[in-house]
Structure formats: C-alpha cells, structure tokens
Write a structure and sequence with these properties.
Strand content of chain B: 15-25%
Number of helices of chain B: 3
Oligomer: heterodimer
Structural class of chain B: alpha/beta
CATH topology of chain B: Hypothetical Protein Ychn, Chain: A
CATH class of chain A: Mainly Alpha
Shape of chain A: globular
Largest sheet of chain A: 2 strands, antiparallel
Structural class of chain A: mainly alpha
CATH class of chain B: Alpha Beta
Number of helices of chain A: 5
Helix content of chain B: 10-25%
Largest sheet of chain B: 5 strands, parallel
CATH topology of chain A: Arc Repressor Mutant, subunit A
CATH superfamily of chain B: DsrEFH-like
Largest interface: A-B, 14 and 14 residues
Strand content of chain A: 5-15%
Shape of chain B: globular
CATH superfamily of chain A: DsrC protein, C-terminal domain
Radius of gyration of chain A: 13 Å
Number of strands of chain A: 2
Strand order of the largest sheet of chain B: 6-3-2-1-7
Number of domains of chain A: 1
C-alpha cells in the first residue's frame, strides 16, 4: 500500500517497507512511524539515523543483536540493550526502525 | 536446545556473474544471527569476492563488497583465504579488503579476520567442521 507524503505517493511492499530507498525523507519517516503508531522522539531519531548510517556504510541492515551492540557503543551503554530499544520500537527494533529508516527488512530477521 | 555447530561456508566463484557469492554472504549473516560457530573459506576465483576497490557501475549490479566489513559485527571472525589461490592469481593479502573484528575478551582490541592458509592447512580446518556449505 503506497503512503502519501507531502502530496507524493511512495510505493511500499506488502509489509510496508519502502520500495525505493532513495525516496526516503524525514517526512516519509514520520509518516511511516505514524502508520506503526510511533510518535518520533529524539531517541527514535537517534536509532533511525544510526541505521541509515550503518546501511550507507555496509549496504545491509544490522540484525537485532548487532544493532544492540553497536548502539551501545555509539550512544552509550544505557541505550545498548534490547529493553531500551523495545520501549522505543515495541514491535521489534530491527523491523520497525528499519521500516521507518526506509531500509529493506534486515537480514536474519525471521 | 542450543547446540552450537561448526559451520563453514566455502566460496569458490567470482563475486558477480552468478548469484552464489551474494547468496552465500546472506546465508552467513543469517546463520550468524543464530549464534553458530561460523567460518568462511575463499578458494579459487572466490578470492575475488574479497578484492579491494570493487566497482560495479558498468555491470548494473549492486556492489555488495562493503557488506563483508560487517561480518565482524556479526561475530564472523574466521575468514580463511587459500594461499595457493591467491598466488595463482598474482594477488597478495594487501590486495584484499582489510576485514577486522573486535575481541570482547581483550577489551575490544581490533583484530584481523582474514587468515591466509595453505591448501593442506585448510583441509585440516575443514576436517574439524560439522557442516560444509559450498557456494
């Protein structure tokens, strides 16, 4: 189902992931988050921006375990645990945060 | 119910032209998420998968070589390259990407993932595996 962002219609796959990575914008992220019932806070953006940087560098989205470890290293130990990430993204940090970040579904996310 | 198996993924083909290299890499990353003891071997033209400075612009395929650098994050830290295959192609370790991991037991010291081994050493390592996957 396509999502409407700023008068533009963005194609998504059947699970709601953006079909075209390059169409992502902060506006699109907010709309994707809304569809997930998430109100984007600074903490949410931190994770989403981290994921985009990770993807830029490695061309894949990290698995949850990798994400947790990497977030802890970059944003501090108090944030590098699954409890913190699940509080931000209740339906799975990797799945939901990747969707909002406009990335494909993470490898190893079964 | 968690039995850790020693899994080795053997890569023998050039990175582009067939889907084997990318499929192998994806399976490795998935296998690593299940906390198995994963290693990779690069033999024959498989060596080219690890080559530095890959550029796929002219062949219209995604350059997935940056993804090999993420293997350390996924705790895939044993990457064996066969010495004979390197030499036969006029290549040296310096021609390959510098893949590293952080050793949690040694205060996150950065260590090299790639080990160049001879054909007979590699045969011994293969002997110790529970499962070998050929790509």
């Amino acid at each position: 189902m396509p999502i409407e962002v700023g008068g533009k219609s963005l194609e998504t796959d059947e699970e709601g992931y953006l079909a075209n990575l390059s169409e992502w914008s902060e506006e699109a992220a907010t709309a994707l988050a809304e569809a997930e019932g998430i109100d984007m806070s600074t903490n949410h953006w931190e994770v989403v921006n981290f994921l985009r940087e990770y993807y830029e560098e490695y061309q894949i989205a990290p698995a949850v375990r990798v994400l947790t470890k990497a977030i802890g290293k970059k944003l501090g130990k108090d944030k590098g645990n699954s409890k913190y990430l699940y509080e931000l993204f209740p339906y799975g940090p990797a799945k939901q945060a990747c969707k909002i970040a406009g990335l494909p579904k993470p490898t190893g996310c079964v | 119910m968690s039995v850790t198996k020693k899994l080795m993924y053997i890569n023998r083909r050039a990175p582009y032209g067939t889907i084997y290299a990318w499929e192998s890499l994806e399976v490795v990353l998935i296998g690593a998420a299940f906390e198995q003891d994963v290693s990779m071997a690069f033999i024959d033209d498989g060596i080219y998968q690890l080559l530095k400075g890959q550029d796929t612009n002219d062949i219209g395929m995604k350059n997935f070589s940056p993804t090999y650098s993420a293997l350390g994050d996924f705790e895939v830290t044993q990457i064996f390259v066969e010495k004979e295959s390197l030499e036969a192609r006029g290549l040296a370790l310096d021609d390959l990407m510098h893949l590293t991991y952080e050793d949690e037991d040694e205060d996150y010291a950065e260590k090299d993932s790639i080990k160049v081994v001879s054909s007979s050493e590699l045969a011994d390592i293969m002997e110790q595996q529970d499962v070998l996957y050929n790509f």
